């Protein structure tokens, strides 16, 4: 039997999770339907194809070998049954409402940690599929590859697979220890130095920061989701008029939407500048080792208290330039890098505390998930919309994930349903902010 040790950040995600705070990510895809039975046909296809995708057979087990004591590894599940992972639901009139309830439920940790929920539309001309993947099994890029394996075949760029080393067993690891000790000591001391450097940078960057109460709450474990879609051409019009990157515009839209939403619900936006964590991938194609999540991040203050849409964009642009100049190894957003310098047993014992501390570092997650530009299908049915869904850390009320698919921007919103009962109003504020930016640019 072969196994694949979890990368440090994957291990952190695995142990941060609790029954009330699952750490899976998701994607809600909406397909056009040729007939009212299209959803049932899609569920059959997903179950049949899942059996042929090796990555979907992997479960996560604990590892107690000397060189990975307290860690975890991916390994094939000998009892894998795709019917335990693919579920067909009753027809629904609201895909997002059903997706929110399904996102509340943690994945079964004894099985490969993924699910596909097929939601037929009551209109008979559409159906949706909610894919759920645990962050320890797949980050956004790997989840995309796994999902592509059960959709209709497409020509996706191939990456050379990394060979999975056979598990050597306890006795083999013990025999190797004497020769490895000097290198392990040097590596540990080097890791401590890098960790202290990152930690000092974190401390400097977070000095004086306080959580934004409107976006933090006593965690309830409930979830709601919503989606917003608009043309990418609108983003390019703004960018070409006032400068900056596409990502700058998309982040500024979040800041403006928060301002409108807070003012409308009576919380007020005056003096509000929540800290947004913007994840940055550190994975190098073909050479990434270990596989799994390789993330850092930028931390910026969202200019919610700035009344001018273009002023908000300018502040975001300046903050992102400053972060990029410093690099992903500096600043409070680099907290994910510390995972690389914590021993496996440390993640196991400290995971719950780290999860509870997330609200001390940032108030809201704003992440981009890449998607292929080509059209995707399932059983010949066209994928028309796709909303990425990010996990919520304990005590955080809202997360925003953004994807661009076939010329359209999709905002996937996830919230603690008790803390944010009006997520639909925030979704509407996102749409209004896009229009406000266009108007401010005179286009």
Question: Mean pLDDT score, rounded?
Answer: 80
> How helix-rich are the residues, as a percent range?
25-40%
| Architecture (CATH level 2) name of the largest domain | 2-Layer Sandwich
- Shape, principal axes of CA atoms: globular
**Which strand order spans the largest sheet, edge to edge or round the barrel?**
5-6-7-2-13-12
CATH superfamily heading of the largest domain:
Nonribosomal peptide synthetase, condensation domain
Order of helices and strands: EHEHEEEHEEHHEHHEEHHEEEEEH
| Biggest sheet character | 6 strands, mixed
- State the end-to-end distance: 60 Å
Q: What structural class do you assign from the helix and strand content?
A: alpha+beta
Domain O-acyltransferase WSD1 C-terminal: 292-430
Family: Belongs to the long-chain O-acyltransferase family.
GO molecular function, one term: diacylglycerol O-acyltransferase activity
Enzyme class: transferase
Task: Please describe what this structure looks like.
The protein is an alpha+beta fold. It has 2 domains: 4-149, Chloramphenicol Acetyltransferase, CATH 3.30.559; 193-372 and 393-441, Nonribosomal peptide synthetase, condensation domain (Chloramphenicol Acetyltransferase). Helix content is 37%, strand content 22%. The protein is built from 10 helices and 15 strands. It has helices spanning 8-16, 38-50, 95-104, 140-148, 170-206, 232-242, 246-264, 309-326, 344-361, 423-441, and strands spanning 4-5, 24-32, 58-63, 71-76, 86-88, 114-120, 126-134, 224-231, 275-281, 295-301, 364-368, 377-378, 381-389, 398-405, 408-415. The strands form 3 sheets. The protein has a 6-stranded mixed β-sheet, sandwiched between helices. Strand 12 and strand 13 form a beta hairpin. The radius of gyration is 22 Å and the shape is globular. The relative contact order is 0.18. This is Diacylglycerol O-acyltransferase.
